[in-house]
Amino acid sequence: MSLGRAALTLPTFNQWRLNQQHLSRLESDLLIAHVTKMSRVQVLAHPEQPLNKAQTLKLDQLSLALCDGTPLAYVLGEKEFFGLSLRVNSSVLVPRPETELLVELALQRLNPTDGVLDVGTGSGAIAVALAASPLQLLVDASDNSQSALAVAEENARLHKVAINFHLSDWFRSLPVTRWHMIVSNPPYIAPNDPHLDALAAEPPTALIAENNGLADLLTIIEESPRFLQPGGWLLLEHGYDQATAIRSAMFKRGFSKVESFTDLASIERVTQGCYCE
Ligand code: GLN
User: Fold this and answer.
1) Ligand 1 pocket test, candidate residues 88, 92, 93, 214, most atoms within 8 A of CB
2) b/e for 61-89, b at 16 or more Cβ within 10 A?
């Protein structure tokens, strides 16, 4: 009898979902799928399935974290990027769909077995997506954060790709090598940008750059020619209002074929340059 009563207090998927007024349907489904290790489709197909005690406790805890403003990707510990499920935690920026544009442009310009460097790799999203392509690229990736590199290394392991990782503050500690391409999604938000309020859970060092958000982008433009093969490409993601400044900095540093590309929201988001000495 008492067993029966205890079981009654545990909710079904649907009952738990109905109690989470602050969550969207998608969020509650994803949390249930995560905790029960079922697919979202399976969760949708079994609304009357009961949760066990450990699952219910875990779900309540994750729901609270979401409510407190923790991004869904951190709560789940994963985020999909370029068709790959990547591990993420609060040491790294959550990979964004606009960064997929950078990967697409890079893949269009790379030849099989080319060497490419992702400088400031964070979760390793760009580097892992490039390394997982059929082009058999030789991929290097760097970051100045040991904890970010640990996440990137885990993502490379998970997707069974070989990447050479380097702990380096931009180009400072990198081997003297010349890559066919250097790509980066560096911090580019100005310290006083009001958008930062919505990004409070993510590491400020991955988001914020001095000089109106341009400092790290300009460092990369200045230093990358020493690390590029003749005719090598530099591809940079940047902020919505920075394309003009980035193009002019690339021209000034001697890049040619300088061009910006728009993301799905029609915002100039990635700028390229080719370095021919
Ligand atoms: N794209 C991110 C955002 O605007 C910022 C990423 C970055 O600074 N590199 O939310």
Assistant:
1) 93
2) ebbeebeeeebbbbbbebbebbebebbbb
Q: Which domains does the chain have, with CATH numbers?
A: 2-68 (1.10.8.10), 81-275 (3.40.50.150)
- Short-list 85, 84, 88, 86, CA closest to 75: 88
Cβ of 196 below 6 Å from ligand 1:
no
* CA 111–ligand 1 middle distance (angstroms): 28
Q: Is the CB of 267 under 6 A from ligand 1?
A: no
Decide: pTM greater than 0.85: yes
d(CA 207, ligand 1 centre) in Å: 6
Cβ–ligand 1 distance for 96 under 6 Å, the answer yes
Q: Give the three-state DSSP class for 81.
A: strand
Tens-level pLDDT at each residue, the chain (277 residues): 444 444 558 999 999 999 998 999 999 999 999 999 999 999 999 999 999 999 999 999 999 999 999 999 999 999 999 999 999 999 999 999 999 999 999 999 999 999 999 999 999 999 999 999 999 999 999 999 999 999 999 999 999 999 999 999 999 999 989 999 999 999 999 999 999 999 999 999 999 999 999 999 999 999 999 999 999 999 999 999 999 999 999 999 999 999 999 999 999 999 999 998 7
CA distance 221 to 231: 15
